[in-house]
Design goal:
The chain has 180 residues and is mainly α. Helix content is 49%, strand content 0%. Helix 1 runs antiparallel to helix 6. The longest helix has 31 residues. The chain is elongated, with a radius of gyration of 24 Å.
């Protein structure tokens, strides 16, 4: 009997720990959807810059910062991807220092205001097409829905439903074994 209880506890532990890990992963690993809009407003840019200006994927997020790109370069001015208030002082410090990430002789902040990419020394393409129609893609992290207060509740409720489903499957399996 002791072994059966121990097995049951172990069989429920794995799904429970996966659900808890899922909740924490969805809560803490996300793109900072505020940065592109703040960057646009602070520098009076014609568009919201794409996340790939600093990150290796269009959603941005922790662990995706590209070495040598603007976001990485501006760390020297106190930029912290998890600290929204660090962005404006970092922008101002980069502007004052006339930081030029791509080495083309044009400061990063000037390139951003002029709709050119501060990571591209040839400035081959604009960051965005100003005045594009509704069928044009929307750039920036703005498409990532901001987290609402109910999101964590929904994640917790989902985890509970998954746990209840998994535990009922294990109980059914145990009952079948007992009847054999």
């Amino acid at each position: 009997m002791f072994n059966l209880g121990r097995r049951r506890a172990l069989s429920l532990f794995a799904p429970a720990s996966l659900c808890i890990a899922w909740i924490f992963a969805t809560t803490f690993v996300e793109a900072n959807q505020l940065f592109p809009g703040i960057l646009q407003a602070t520098l009076h840019m014609p568009c919201t810059p794409p996340c790939m200006m600093c990150h290796d994927n269009p959603l941005g997020g922790r662990g995706t910062l590209v070495k040598g790109y603007v976001g990485d370069n501006w760390k020297q001015f106190g930029l912290d991807g998890e600290d929204v208030p660090s962005l404006v002082p970092a922008i101002m410090a980069a502007e004052q220092a006339m930081t030029d990430t791509d080495g083309d002789g044009i400061p990063d902040t000037t390139e951003l205001m002029d709709n050119t990419n501060p990571d591209d020394p040839k400035n081959t393409a604009p960051l965005c097409v100003v005045g594009a129609g509704p069928d044009m893609p929307v750039y920036g992290c703005g498409h990532v829905a901001p987290r609402a207060a109910g999101d964590n509740v929904a994640a917790g409720a989902s985890a509970i439903v998954v746990l209840l489903g998994v535990s009922s499957l294990f109980r059914r399996r145990l009952r079948r074994r007992r009847t054999k």
